[in-house]
Amino acid sequence: MLPKSLILLAPLMLCAANWQDAVNTAVSATSSTQKSAVSSNTTSQSSATSGVKEALSLGAKQAVSLLGKEGGYLNNAAVKIPLPASMKPIATAAEKLGGKSYVDDFVKTMNNAATKSVPKTASILSDTISSMSVEDANAIVNGSNTAATDYFKTKAGTKLLSAIMPIIKESIKESQVMSSYQSLKGFAGGSNATSGLANNAMIGQASSIAKGFGMGDAVPSGDEDIEDYIGRKTLDGLFYMIAEKEKALRSNPMASGSSIIQQVFGK
After folding, report:
1. What does the pLDDT look like over 177-225, one tens digit per residue?
2. Worst-scoring range by mean pLDDT, 17-21, 111-115, 206-210, 237-241?
3. How far apart are CA 58 and CA 252, in angstroms?
4. The whole model's pTM is what?
5. CA distance 61 to 64
6. Rounded to 10 degrees, what is the CA torsion of 247, 240, 152, 122?
7. How far, in Å, CA of 172 to CA of 150, rounded?
8. Which residues, other chains included, contact 240 with Cβ-Cβ below 8 Å and sequence gap of 6+?
9. Long-range pairs for 202-205 at CB < 8 Å and ≥24 separation?
């Protein structure tokens, strides 16, 4: 026969055992819930990163493709590279004296140089996308309608400019753009350029007209200024097109045909 003390303790021991089982079950359930939450969050972040990368890649490829085809810049009013502001009065003077073709050739060659150089940006844009962090992706998903484009500008702007400048310089050398540029430039300085309009008398007239517009020394000082201008405008056009693609994708992710993009941007 069991001692009376053990008989009295038995219910307490049983309760303690049941309580410990309950605690163990609760701890196990909590741990499982936490693991599930972490796993779900990790999956969500992974999906966001994949979706953003795919969206960026799609937008970048479309933009480069459109701008890299013949007339990509010249025939697109939104990105067409215009005359530098400092040269517009000279262009006006040239056109009044029958030299509109010089102005048109100059503008055409600048835009053709941009079109020729923009495919060079594809690999840099791709590398920038590949190196994107989870934090970057989340910021883009929760950012403005052009957050992805802004990411490109910040992370790759300098590299992109360095990549396209050699092509722009080579394109300028191969064309007559600098000949046209020097003719227009000569109007403001009153030089006796022989490749300008019909003759030196007309150049002198154009020079006087240009000075009458208050040009002074406002004309770009050399080839590097023109090259830099074309380079910056080339990237302006590229970022503009990427931004347009990004805004369209955010507003209608279904049109992308990608389930991951729809999942991320369709919320």
Report:
1. 666 666 655 554 443 343 444 444 444 544 454 444 443 433 444 555 8
2. 206-210
3. 14
4. 0.71
5. 5
6. 110
7. 29
8. 78, 79
9. 202/97, 202/98, 205/97
pLDDT digits (tens, 9 = 90+) for 15-43: 545 545 544 554 454 444 444 443 444 44
**Spatial CB neighbours of 157, under 8 Å, sequence gap ≥ 6:** 235
What are the residue boundaries of the structural domains of the chain, listed by start?
44-265
Residues with Cβ < 8 Å from 13, sequence gap 6 or more? Answer: none
Instruction: Evaluate whether 141 touches 261 at the Cβ level (below 8 Å).
Output: no
3-state secondary structure (DSSP) of residue 192: coil
CA distance 38 to 51: 20
Task: Enter the tokens of residue 140.
Answer: 């883009």
What's the full length of the chain, in residues? 267
